[in-house]
Amino acid sequence: MLLSFYFTLFSFSFLSLCTANSNSSQIENAEDLASQRVLILQENYQEYIKKTLQTRQYGCTPDNIVYRREWGQLSKKDRREYIDAVYCLQKKAPWSSKADIPGARSRFDDFAGVHIQETPFVHFSGLFFPFHRYFVWLYETALREECGYSDYQPYWDWTISWEDPRESTVFDGSPYSMGSNGQAVPHGPTNISAFGLNLTLAPATGGGCVYMGPFTPDTYQVHLGPVAFQPYDGDGGLEYNPRCLVRDLSAVWANNTRPTKVLSLLEACDDIGCFDTELEAIDGVHAGGHFAMGGLGLDAYASAGDPAFWLHHAQIDRVWTIWQNQAPAQRTWQTAGTGTAFNEPPSPNVTLDTWINFGVLAAKEQVRKVSSTIDGPFCYMYL
Ligand SMILES: *[C@@H]1O[C@H](CO)[C@@H](O)[C@H](O)[C@H]1NC(C)=O
Ligand SMILES: *[C@@H]1O[C@H](CO)[C@@H](O)[C@H](O)[C@H]1NC(C)=O
Ligand SMILES: *[C@@H]1O[C@H](CO)[C@@H](O)[C@H](O)[C@H]1NC(C)=O
Ligand SMILES: *[C@@H]1O[C@H](CO)[C@@H](O)[C@H](O)[C@H]1NC(C)=O
Ligand SMILES: *[C@@H]1O[C@H](CO)[C@@H](O)[C@H](O)[C@H]1NC(C)=O
Ligand SMILES: [Cu+2]
User: Fold this and answer.
1) 128-162 pLDDT, tens per residue?
2) Is residue 78 part of a domain?
3) Residue 369 included in any domain
4) Is residue 231 lining ligand 2, measured as CB closer than 6 Å?
5) Which atom of ligand 1 is found nearest the CA of 26?
6) Where are the alpha helices (DSSP H) in 58-215?
7) Which of 190, 191, 192, 193 to mutate to test the pocket of ligand 3 (most atoms within 8 A of CB)?
8) Residue scoring higher pLDDT (227 or 25)
9) For residue 191, which atom of ligand 2 is closest to its CA?
């Protein structure tokens, strides 16, 4: 499936290169070549996992490993099943207490609230990858065990829609998407402040409420946050603040998720500290995906209130996984950094023994336990 997709992409742009000798087709061609190269790295990763599971003894075997797929590769029926499971989580009573996350009204809000609580520890820190890997896995598990979802967490491969996220199957506004862009409303820049970083983000193509497909105001309300937007409202983001889901899809930011960007990220670093710094950089793919969504996605704390957050972070986990498995013996068990954003306030170095906090969602886990997707509690692979 994927192979033929990329082959089509490649032959199409090969044709366009022959008919138009413009710079834009040269850029397209570079992107297509990078897509192919990323695909090869992914195939290496898949081969490694298959081989390892055949030759080593884990609880994870070739028979019970599960597969996470790209949103656009899911059938319409499968996409609906996922969307309905998310709606279900948004209707289930929260586990968190009024003292813990006062504004939580659902299990979905438990996840959004824990993200707000943990944000200062799990971004620009040695906990970024391990926290978000387990966080996505807990969400996937809640969808399956509490809402009867039968498949696995899909991801949004931004390199497919880097030229215009509005055309992505994730955001095209069809009943099989994660909802549309926000309504186009004239607005100024958005100022955000988090981890001592202050940014002014230009308005993009939306700015209002999601208006088509799932998660429009009649089917979904955001309850928590904002936290990062300036001027600051001062309540910490955990109070009940019902409002519509805002998006502001941006091709300018999506440009930072283009295939050449992902390829150079995958090839740039041999150590996790370097890889994390590149991936979390303001001009990197993590911010690229969040800022391409815009609206709530700009809020480093409250962004998990957008149901598309989970597809974006599955893709982040996929990219980490592909990177890890290019040199698994060296890269799977590496740690770097500390347990606070930019080490502010200073905290001990993260090691494999460091405990990660998941608030009301689950017991603490050690970094070691979540370092591998096949050796530990996990048994999954990306297609
Ligand atoms: C391509 O880019 C180069 C420099 O980047 C420029 O000199 C040239 O005119 C461009 N060609 C076209 C067809 O746009
Ligand atoms: C946003 O930041 C810009 C530049 O730093 C500043 O000029 C502007 O007043 C800020 N806007 C708000 C609403 O705080
Ligand atoms: C960033 O914004 C915060 C909150 O408005 C403010 O307290 C801080 O002084 C700003 N920092 C810089 C470097 O401008
Ligand atoms: C995307 O980023 C590249 C590299 O920074 C730049 O050359 C290019 O002009 C950008 N494209 C768009 C459409 O912004
Ligand atoms: C923490 O990590 C830094 C950077 O790798 C290193 O220089 C430092 O010695 C480490 N500190 C401790 C207490 O291990
Ligand atoms: Cu996060």
Assistant:
1) 999 999 999 999 999 999 999 999 999 999 999 99
2) yes
3) yes
4) yes
5) 1
6) 76-89, 107-122, 128-147
7) 193
8) 227
9) 1
Burial label, 320 (beta-carbon count in 10 A; 0-12, 13-18, 19+) = buried
Mean pLDDT of all residues belonging to the chain: 93
Among 22, 250, 255, 263, the mutation site with the greatest number of ligand 4 atoms within 8 A of its Cβ is: 255
In terms of residue numbers, what domain contains 262?
36-382
For residue 377, is the peptide bond before it cis, meaning its omega torsion is within 30 degrees of 0?
no
Predicted pLDDT of residue 23: 66
Tell me how far the alpha carbon of residue 262 lies from the centroid of ligand 5, in angstroms. Answer: 29
| 25 close to ligand 4 (CB < 6 Angstrom) | no
* HSE-up of residue 62 (Cα within 13 Å, Cβ side): 11
pLDDT tens column, 257-275: 999 999 999 999 999 999 9
Does residue 26 register a pLDDT over 60? yes
Q: Considering only CA atoms, which of 115, 99, 174, 130 is closest in space to residue 300? A: 115
Q: Is residue 205 part of a domain?
A: yes
Q: What is the mean pLDDT of residues 304-317?
A: 98
Q: Domain containing 184 — which CATH number?
A: 1.10.1280.10
pLDDT tens-digit map of 221-235? 999 999 999 988 778
Domain count of the chain? 1
Residue 21 domain-assigned? no
* Residues 293-320, mean pLDDT to the nearest whole number: 98
Sign of the C-alpha dihedral computed for residues 101, 121, 342 and 276 taken in this order: negative
Measure the CA–CA gap between 290 and 128, rounded to whole angstroms. Answer: 15
